[in-house]
Specification:
This protein has 434 residues and is of the alpha/beta class. It contains 13 helices and twelve strands. The structure holds N~2~-sulfamoyl-L-arginine, calcium ion and zinc ion.
Length: 434
Amino acid sequence: MKNLKPILWVLLLSVGLGLPLFSGPDRPGEIISVPGTEDARRALRGLDLDLLMEQDGRIFIVAGPDDILHLSAQRVPFVVETGRFAPAQPGEVRLAGGINGAYHSYKELEADLKSLENAHPSIVEVHTLGTSLEGRSIYAVKISDNPDLDEEEAEVLFLGCHHAREWISVEVPFLLARRLAEGYEGDPAIRELVDRSEIWIVPLLNPDGLEYSINVYRYWRKNRRANADGTFGVDLNRNYGYMWGRDDQGSSALPDAEDYRGVSAFSEPETRAVRDLFLGGNFLAAVSYHSFSQSILYPWGFADIPTGKDDLLRGLGLEMAGLIETVNGRSYACGQAASSLYVTNGDLTDWTFGVSGIPSYTIELPPVDIQNGGFFNAEDEIEGIFRENLPAMFRLVEFAIRDFGGLSAIHRERDIVRTPLTNRGQKDKYAVRR
Ligand code: 0X9
Ligand code: CA
Ligand code: ZN
């Protein structure tokens, strides 16, 4: 049970307790624990609670003042555990980098991307893929030689921050962009990769959610869609159009739920931005960064059934895990998403794999579990987490370059299995340019 993560605990507890899936409250809350007894479970029933985990026989929840009153009235003993966790609400600003310390806010990322482009205009180009519901730009950085040309080169996609609270997932792809840009002149290995590919990096897919997580509620996960029933948020990683809404196990139809799939596939501007970028390109590999649990997950996510390319997906995934481990000694588990984590439908990697058959991975960054920090990584961990992921990123770009060159057996196999995309060759149609 070590690898279970909060969203899964939500699902388990919801099933076990007959609770509706929670939606992180917009109101302030305390993290409390209650004993995992039948009495306590009964008292929790019907409350709109933010269930975090069950550990050592106790259930941890985020509870607002009303919930605490309710539990007291039901004579459920509880312990306030807030102090054991990093703050869920912004407090006094003591960090040099502002309320979110060394992590990027939307504005900080925007500024850093633009200065990266200004410093390295011959290989960096910042694109706006679309606009979030609250009017923020969804940025993509294209790193390539001749970035202003759409060359016949392998394209690779790295994305971060589908989920607002997973702050580390912004930093890892951002630092990749910076490393490629800064290393191009002096590092022949980087130069070779960049010259032969077009690397697209979307560090912050969910800017509205991130801002909400920074400024209002640290555990926010979804985007900030105002749903018809007055609740907020669609889980962007349930909104893609492959097997979207296939069942209620892999996503929820309830707007209040943390894994709410939205009213239709690609109902959200963020997922549409990714769709249009992807379909307008020639992508040969994709990684979506999340946190936490230190794992590399490959399709399918929607069901535990074979893909027809399991050997390739597993082989490359294991190779990446091996490369990661050599850097800091941290081990990332590697496995098929549905069987090693849980079933999802409408996630990014099922869609990219489903429409194009390319190696597509969800990488869940450290820590390994909630006892080791959950969604909170100390600022001084950022660099090490990035550094350990870098060789795996390079490996995937290298895979794409070879695949594009038709050098490998993998390539021939891909051509057979691949679903033809009707819009290939009409790249100009897509407004991914500034
Ligand atoms: O639930 C998700 O979207 C991802 N995990 S997270 O805790 N970061 O939210 C996992 C998506 C991978 N797909 C499957 N496990 N099916
Ligand atoms: Ca190029
Ligand atoms: Zn996530």
